[in-house]
Amino acid sequence: MNLVVGATGTLGSEICRRLAESGRPVRALVRATSDSGAVGALKEMGAEVVVGDVHNRASLEQACKGVTVVISTISAMPKSYDAERNTIRQVDEEGVKWLVDAAKAAGVSRFLYTSFSGQIDLDFPLRNAKRAVEQHLRNSRLTYTILRPSYFMQAWLGPGVGFDYENAKATIYGAGQNAISWISVHDVARFAVASLDNTAAENATLELGGPEALSPDQVVKIFEVAGGTKFEVTYVPETALSAQQKEASDPMQQSFVGLMRCYAQGDAIDMKETVREFPIDLTSVQSYARSVLVHA
């Protein structure tokens, strides 16, 4: 049995879908307050849905019974964040550490954890929580795989963070010249499932990016060509981002700005060796641009 924690999220649900399509049994942990549509979709794909919460250690222990593999994609950011009841510390750090401990106590043989790029190394709450969980998992003596994807195309090349391709407007963080290995969330899900049968993923940390590293300026050009429309581009200087992070009092705001600062510095990942071990046909920014502009 494969337990997916964070199953109603974009990445978690995609992992569940791919596991189910490959004939693997899937157990999806959802909260009592999870979106009914997302829960229904999990049931339709054949997942066994169990109710639990990373705030409730007993529910994690129950969910891990009879499980061989635990896959964690859960995060308080961005949709479920609550400054009082669902914080980065409570979910991304303490909750996932509890999940690791529950998996170990239940005799789970494999734990796959989705973090983010190892080059994202500035000091902010989400980064600190992710690195703390990584170390806790390494110390647990469970067989582990840590996936460290770069910036998701679906998030960072979308309107939610200022890349409004429908209206040909883009907010760029930094000077726009430092390359990032933008990756599709669907490819991260493919790596997660492929890792379960690949010995190269055992007790390994995999840095994941797309097929090429492109600067934000280059990405804008790709969208302009694909859509035949010139973009209006706004640049947010790194000095302004640093000031925003210092002024932010909320951990989620601090983390968003921290991620923007890392974006400004670039995040290029060489995928040659990884693709040799995991023969996955990575989604290009060009392909992503064409797919979203068709519906724009």
Characterise this structure.
This protein is α/β, with parallel strands linked by helices and 296 residues long. The chain has 12 helices and 10 strands. The strands form 2 sheets. Strands 3-2-1-4-5-6-9 form a 7-stranded parallel sheet, sandwiched between helices. It has a 3-stranded mixed sheet with strand order 7-8-10. A hairpin with a 4-residue loop joins strand 7 and strand 8. Helix 1 (10-21) packs across helix 7, helix 4 runs parallel beside helix 5 and helix 9 (238-247) runs antiparallel to helix 10 (251-265). The longest helix has 18 residues, at 88-105. The termini are far apart. The model has no long low-confidence stretch (mean pLDDT 96).
How is the biggest beta sheet arranged? 7 strands, parallel
Determine Rg (CA atoms, Å): 19 Å
- Uncertain residue segments: none
Number of strands: 10
Helix content: 40-55%
Give, in order, the helices and strands. EHEHEHEHEHEHEEHEHEHHHH
Strand content: 15-25%
Overall geometry comes to: globular
Question: Helix segment count?
Answer: 12
Q: Specify the structural class.
A: alpha/beta
Strand order of the largest sheet: 3-2-1-4-5-6-9
Ends apart, CA distance between termini: 39 Å
Integer average pLDDT: 96
